[in-house]
Amino acid sequence: MTYLHSIGEYFLMLKGVFGRMTKRSVLKDLIFKEIDELIIGSLGIVCFLSFFIGAVVAIQTALNLNNPLIPKSLVAFAARQSVILEFSPTFISIIMAGKVGSFITSSIGSMRVTEQIDALEVMGINSKNYLIFPKIIAMLTYPFVIAISMFLGILGAYVAAVLGGFVKPDDFVSGLQDDFVTFHLIYAFIKTFLFAFILATVPAYHGYYMKGGALEVGQASTTAFVWTSVVLIITNYATTQLLLS
Amino acid sequence: MIEVKNLRKAFNGEEVLKGLNFVFDRGKTNLIIGQSGSGKSVFLKNMLGIFTPEEGTIEYDGKPYSEFTDEERRELRKEIGMVFQGGALFDSMTVKENVMFPLKMFTKMKKAEMEERVDNVLERVNLVGADDKMPSEISGGMQKRVSIARAIVNRPKYLFCDEPNSGLDPTTATVIDNLIQKITHEFDITTIIITHDMNSVLEIGEKIAFLKDGLLAWTGTKDEIFKTEDKTVTDFVYSSDLFKKVRKAQLKGY
C-alpha cells in the first residue's frame, strides 16, 4: 500500500509540476541555472568515465578473441554496440542518478526542512512548478551529454585497442562501420530522453515529500538513488523489449 | 482586519481548535500566545490557507476566505507577508535577491525600481551593506531582519510572524520586536505574531489572544495581561523566575 501511495503521490506531484506556471522571466533564469548545475557540472565525470569504459570494453573484447577466424575488427564493432546501446545511455544514467539525483533530492529536501518551500507556497507560488519544472527542462539537454559520452567511449576504445596493439587503425575503423543500424542510435536517444525525465523527477519527488531534519535529507538522497536506479533499469528493460525485440 | 469566527480544526478526529472567535485589528501588533501544543501554529496555518478548517470562517477585510476564487486566493497571498521561525531565506540567493524575490515574482517593476525599493527596505531594517552576502554568511538576527525585509518589500496588507525572535539574544529580540511594531504602524498592516516570549508581550502586545487547549482562554492588551487575576493566564505569564518576582512585587504594592 505504501508503494501504491508513493506512486500516486508521484503522479499528483507531476500534475502540480505542469500546473500553474512560474513567471516566464524568472523561469528562464532558473532553467539556465539548472543546466549549469545539472548538465555542465556533470560533464567532467561523464567524459572521464566514458573514455575509460570504452577503453576497457575494447581491451576485454580483444583479450577474449582468441580464435584466428574471428576478425580483429570485431573489437571495434563490439565496443561501438556496447557503448551506444548500453554503456552510454544506461550506465552513465545510473552514475547520474548518484550525482545529479542526490543533488536534486538534497537541495529540495533541505528547502523543505528549512521551510523555504512553505515560504514559496505562502507567497502564492506553485512550488512544484518553480522547483521541479526547470530541472525537467534542463534535463532535456541530457541527450547531448550522452552523445558526448558515446563519442568519447568509442574514442577510448580506439585509443586502447590501437595503442595497445590489439587492432590496426584501419581494422578498427572498418569494424566501427560494420553493420551499422541507424535505429540503434534512435533507440538509444529515445531511452535517454526517458531517463532524463526519470533523473529529474524521481529524486525531486523524494526531496519534495521528505519529512524530518538534516539526517532525513541524507536518508532521502540514498533512497532517491536506489529508486531512481530501479526505475531506470525497469524502463531500460521495457524500452528495449518494445523497440528492439 | 482579519476576523475569525467559530474556527474549528481537527486531525484524525482530535479537535485542535475548538471554536475560536477573534478580531485581528489593522495597524496593530496582534499577538497569539500560549503553551506549546495549544494550537497557535495550527491557528496561523488556517489563516494562511495552508490548512482548511472543519468549521468556521476567516474573513479578510470582511470577505470569507472560503468564498474566494482560486485567482482571488492567489491575489490575497500576494498581500501577505510571512516571517518564518527559522527565517526561511532562500539559501541559493544573496540577501538582496531574497528581498527582491517577491517583486520579481509579482510585479512588473523595472530592475532599477526594484533595486531602489530593496535598498529602501534594507535601510529600514538596518541591513545596509549586507546586500551581496549569502544567508549562511550572516547572523541569526540579521537573517530575521532579511526575512522581515522580504515580507514587507511588496507592501503587504497582512503580516504573519511565527516566533520572530526565537533563538535570539534579548537585545536583538527587542530590536526585532520594535522593528515589527514600527513597520505595522508605518504601513498600517494587520500584523499577527505567534510568540512564547513574555518580553515580546511586554514590548509590543497591543492586542493579545491567549490560547489554551484549542480554546481562546483570554484576550486583552499588554497592560491588562499583567493585571489580570485569571489563573490560567497568570500561570503562563508568571512561569519564569523573573516574572514571578515581578508578580510578588506587584502583589506587595511596589
UniProtKB/TrEMBL annotation, chain A:
| Source species, domain of life | Bacteria
User: Single GO molecular-function term?
Assistant: phospholipid transporter activity
Record keyword Membrane present: yes
InterPro entries per the record? Permease_MalE (IPR030802)
- Residue ranges spanning the membrane: these are 38-63, 136-161, 181-205, 217-238
Q: Which GO terms describe its cellular component?
A: ATP-binding cassette (ABC) transporter complex
Keyword list (alphabetical) reads: Membrane, Transmembrane, Transmembrane helix
Name of the protein in question: ABC transporter permease
At the highest ranks, the source species' classification is: Bacteria, Pseudomonadati, Bacteroidota, Flavobacteriia, Flavobacteriales
